[in-house]
Every structure is written in C-alpha cells, then in structure tokens.
Design a protein that fits this description.
Layout lengths: L1 E2 L6 E3 L12 E3 L4 E3 L14 E3 L21 E3 L6 E3 L12 E3 L4 E3 L2 H8 L6 E3 L6 E2 L12 E3 L4 E4 L2 H5 L7 E3 L4 E2 L15 E3 L6 E2 L13 E3 L4 E5 L12 E3 L4 E3 L12 E3 L21 E3 L37 E3 L20 E3 L6 E3 L2 H4 L6 E3 L4 E5 L18 E3 L4 E3 L1
Parallel strand pairs: 1-3, 2-4, 3-5, 5-6, 6-8, 7-9, 8-10, 10-12, 11-13, 12-14, 13-15, 14-16, 16-18, 17-19, 18-20, 19-21, 20-22, 22-23, 23-24, 24-25, 25-27, 26-28, 27-29, 28-30
Length: 416
C-alpha cells in the first residue's frame, strides 16, 4: 500500500511506479501533482484501488488501465484530464466505486452504459465533464447508491424510469443537463433516497403523489424545469428536509406546506402560485434562507391587469418572519404585498432583506433604520413615506460591496 493523501507532493507521477508489481492500493489525492497518468501504471496487475483526485493532472487516461481487471476503486476527480474514457474500461467488472467528476472527459455511451451496469457498482460519479448521449439502453447496477450525472450534456426521457428499480439509491443528481420527459410515479420506490436533484433540465408534467413515499429525503431540487400542477401537500411527509428548491417552474395553487424542523433553505421564486403567505412559514425554526420573490411571476403564467401590474399574490407579509430565530436571508420581492413594515426585534439575525416591487406603505421603522448588521436592504419600488435620517449606517450606492450595509430605496416617497 502507498498512501500519500494530502502530503504536499509535487511534480509528476513517476513511471517507476511500476516497480511495485504487488502494489494493491495507490492513493495520491490532494497533492500538487501535474502531468499525465503514466501508461506504466497498467503494469500494476494486482492493484485494486487507484486515486489521484484533487491534483492538476492532465492528458488522457491510459488505455491499459482498462486491462487492470482487479480494480475496484477509481478516483480521478478534480483534475484536468481530457479525451475519452477508454472502451477498455468495460473490462473492469469488479468495479465498486467509479469517480471521474470535474474533468473534461467524454465517452462513448456504450462505455458508460457498461460501467454503470457492473454488478458490484455502488458509486457512479461522472458529473461536470463533457459527456453527452442518453441512457436508454442502460441497465444500472442494482447495488448503486450514488448516481451523479450533473453538469453534462445528457439527454433523453427514459432515465428516471430506468432508475426506479434502484432500491439502494441514496443520491440521484442529474442537475444541468438536457433531460426531458416527466417524473414517473415509480420514483416513490426509491425509499432510501436522501438527495434528489433534478434542476436545470427540460422535465415537465406534474410531481407524482408517490413522492410522498420518499420519507428519507433531506434535499430536493426541482428548479428551472417545466413542471406544472399543485404541490401544496407533496412535502407533508418529509420531516428530514433541509433544502427545498423548486423555483422557475409553473407550479400553481398555494405554497406547499412543510413539516420539518430541519429545513435550512427554501427557494420558491418565479412560479405561478396563488394565495397569500402563511404564518406557518414561521414555524420553520431552523430556516436560514427564505426566497419567495415573484411567486406568481413566471413567464409562463405572467399577465397584466388594466393598471399594468403583473400577476402577484398580494396579501400581507407575516411579520413573524422578521422574528424567526435563524433566518439570515429574506427575499420576498415582486409579490404585490400591501403591508406596512413592522419593527425588527432586537434578536433578529437577518443580514439580507429584499422587499422591493411590492406595495409596502407607511414609514421605515427605526429598528430597521438603525440596525448595524444588515448587509443589504432593498425596499425600492414601494409606497413608503417618511424620513430616512436614521439610516446613517447604510450606503445608498448600489454599486458598492454588499458588506457595506447597502440600502436601495428608489421609487418611494422618502426624504432625509
């Protein structure tokens, strides 16, 4: 065994590595290595583990590595490796962990299909490369726990149906690809799923009610797709959720009800929601980021009335939002809210507040004007009155750093 993780190694991987014919474990990750992977490494016929991630290695992957049939672990992530994954990799049927993410690699779809089907495979991590194609002919290994395809050019409408049988799956991430089709009801079979990231694709249709069966979910991201329908009660059974993002879709009805004290991030901007903001949001005691701007402003549902206002939810802003114990980021712009601003409690942890493009009236409370630790306060395009003489802690220049306590108040009726 040679284990040199985080040892500040520099230079290239020496070709003399092949003088250890009985070497079974080679760990070179987290160093300052450059150059290419030497072809001589293929002479290590009994090697089961090879990792050189988190370096600056470039060049291509030697074809001979695909003939090292004892390999169970490949970790080449976070480098600058280019070219194609050799077709010889289809020989590595003992593979359990395959991670080549964050490179500039491509591959024939047949090669990826074969690797993804290896009977012992637990992790298939190929995100952030230049892969294209689809998985319509793939037979994913039933042992898979981690499947990351994000940040590539994969397409097709069959993938989600293909993975429905993977009962051991913990993570499914296909973020930022070209996938289409809908989410099948069989997604509910993935009872162990902890992370589901479908963002930035061309997925459409409604979210199936079977999603309620995914009670182990901790993170779900659906943003920037073409989803429609009402999701008001989809997340009622998910008590472990910490991150929920479903912005930039066509969801309708009321905001979904969330029943989790673990929630840290909730982002629901740019949809077609109706109704008003519920005080139930204030029960999310661990929430740090709440982004609800433009809840009804999606281009797919946007309309104007005779006054020229775009569609909005209106109603009041629940003032308990300003008193949430953990909340740091509050974005509720562009919703037509007609409230008056309330005093901020002394205990407020809010750092960024965006309430622009609403119909807020009244004056800016002194507790807001004199608060020292708000980095960005955007109250522009409202109907606020009164003076801002107390805002001596803020800069009124929108071009300065957010860390200089910036305030935006244009298009109101303020003085001072």
């Amino acid at each position: 065994m040679l284990h040199f993780y985080l040892c500040r190694l520099e230079g290239t991987i020496p070709t003399e590595i092949s003088v250890f014919p009985r070497l079974s474990h080679l760990e070179l990750g987290g160093n300052y290595l450059n150059g290419s992977i030497p072809s001589e490494i293929a002479n290590l016929g009994v090697l089961t583990y090879i990792a050189c991630g988190l370096n600056s290695i470039d060049g291509t992957i030697p074809v001979g590595i695909g003939l090292m049939t004892n390999l169970e672990f490949i970790g080449f992530s976070y480098n600058n490796i280019q070219g194609s994954v050799p077709s010889s990799f289809t020989n590595l049927i003992k593979m359990e962990f395959f991670s080549i993410r964050y490179n500039q690699l491509s591959a024939a779809q047949e090669t990826l299909d074969a690797i993804a089907s290896f009977p012992r495979l637990v992790a298939f991590l190929v995100n952030t490369n230049n892969f294209a194609g689809n998985f319509e002919n793939a037979l994913f290994a039933s042992s898979l726990k981690l499947l990351r395809l994000s940040d590539n050019y994969f397409s097709g409408d069959m993938l989600l149906s293909k993975v429905c049988t993977l009962s051991q799956l913990d993570e499914l991430s296909i973020y930022n690809n070209l996938f289409s089709g809908s989410v099948p009801s069989c997604i509910g079979n993935l009872s162990k799923l902890v992370i589901l990231d479908l963002g930035y694709n061309y997925l459409r249709g409604t979210i199936p009610s079977s999603m309620k069966q995914l009670v182990s979910l901790e993170r779900i991201e659906l943003q920037t797709n073409l989803f429609t329908g009402n999701i008001a009660d989809v997340f009622l059974t998910h008590t472990l959720l910490s991150t929920v993002v479903f912005s930039d879709n066509r969801f309708t009805g009321n905001l979904p009800t969330l029943n989790t004290s673990a929630l840290i991030v909730l982002v629901a901007t740019k949809n077609c929601f109706s109704g008003t903001l519920s005080t139930s949001l204030c029960s999310l005691s661990s929430l740090r980021t709440l982004a609800l701007s433009g809840l009804a402003s999606s281009s797919h549902c946007r309309s104007s009335n005779w006054l020229g206002f775009t569609r909005s939810i209106g109603g009041d802003i629940p003032f308990c939002l300003f008193n949430m114990p953990s909340l740091e980021q509050l974005y509720v712009s562009g919703n037509g809210i007609q409230s008056k601003l309330s005093e901020l409690p002394v205990t407020s942890n809010l750092e960024n507040i965006s309430l622009s493009y609403n119909r807020l009236s009244g004056s800016i409370p002194l507790s807001i004007q004199q608060k020292h630790d708000i980095f960005m306060l955007d109250l522009s395009f409202n109907r606020l009155l009164g003076t801002i003489e107390g805002m001596t802690n803020y800069s009124f220049n929108s071009n300065v750093s957010i860390r200089t306590n910036t305030v935006l108040v244009e298009a109101n009726q303020l003085s001072g």
